[in-house]
């Protein structure tokens, strides 16, 4: 067990350093673009790999959140450590940006606390890996929206398509799948801290869902006005 914890710590520490180096490399390659542009490239990379890793840990596709409240496997702990390293890096990196997003900082803090608690208890990894899958599956489309704007595709059909894809996937994952996962986590024999983190993450998701609804309403109204003027 001690060797497993050492491996998890190594993955986390090396991961934080690696994400920082990747960001520096991306920043150099895309030096003509904003700081936010580079962070979104790195975040998209993490989201893609995290979803793949989370998918590979599923033991029973008929019930992806199985086994519930069980002892974490090494593969699950490695997946959690991978995302933990990214969350730590991104929380640090966000302090170097000109604008600090409070809701994003809260989200990252909740995730970090949850990951650390899960690794320390070495329990409920199935639920936590499922949470990684649910929270990261929409991230590439979230970042694609902003990347398209910065490279000159603002207010285009392509940008609108990215908005719709993001809103749809986010809603299905976090507002449909999220509450189910929270229910499973809370009703199972999990530590109180894990249950609190699950509920906190869902509250953050609900807040973001509210903002997404406002964003989509604005986008649709704006597009309708543009179409009316062009006619």
UniProtKB/TrEMBL annotation:
Record flagged with keyword NAD: no
GO CC annotation, single: membrane
Domain TLC, residue spans: 32-221
Chain segments annotated as transmembrane: 6-26, 164-186, 192-213
Listed SMART domains: TLC
Record localization: Membrane
Its membrane topology: Multi-pass membrane protein
Pfam annotation, one family: TRAM_LAG1_CLN8
Keywords: Membrane, Transmembrane, Transmembrane helix
Protein name: Uncharacterized protein LOC108859742
């Amino acid at each position: 067990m001690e060797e497993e914890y050492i491996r998890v710590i190594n993955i986390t520490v090396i991961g934080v350093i690696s994400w920082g180096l990747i960001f520096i490399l991306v920043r150099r390659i895309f030096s003509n673009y904003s700081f936010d542009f580079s962070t979104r490239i790195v975040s998209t990379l993490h989201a893609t790999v995290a979803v793949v890793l989370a998918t590979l840990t599923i033991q029973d596709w008929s019930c992806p959140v199985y086994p519930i409240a069980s002892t974490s496997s090494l593969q699950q702990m490695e997946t959690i450590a991978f995302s933990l390293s990214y969350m730590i890096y991104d929380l640090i990196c966000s302090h170097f940006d000109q604008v600090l997003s409070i809701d994003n900082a809260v989200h990252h803090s909740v995730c970090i606390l949850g990951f650390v608690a899960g690794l320390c208890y070495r329990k409920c990894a199935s639920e936590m890996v499922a949470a990684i899958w649910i929270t990261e599956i929409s991230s590439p489309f979230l970042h694609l929206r902003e990347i398209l704007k910065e490279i000159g595709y603002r207010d285009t059909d392509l940008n609108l398509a990215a908005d719709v894809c993001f809103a749809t996937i986010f809603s299905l994952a976090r507002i449909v799948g999220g509450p189910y996962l929270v229910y499973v986590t809370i009703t199972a024999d999990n530590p109180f801290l894990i249950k609190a983190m699950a509920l906190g993450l869902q509250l953050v998701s609900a807040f973001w869902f509210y903002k997404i609804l406002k964003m989509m309403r604005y986008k649709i109204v704006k597009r309708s006005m543009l179409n009316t003027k062009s006619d």
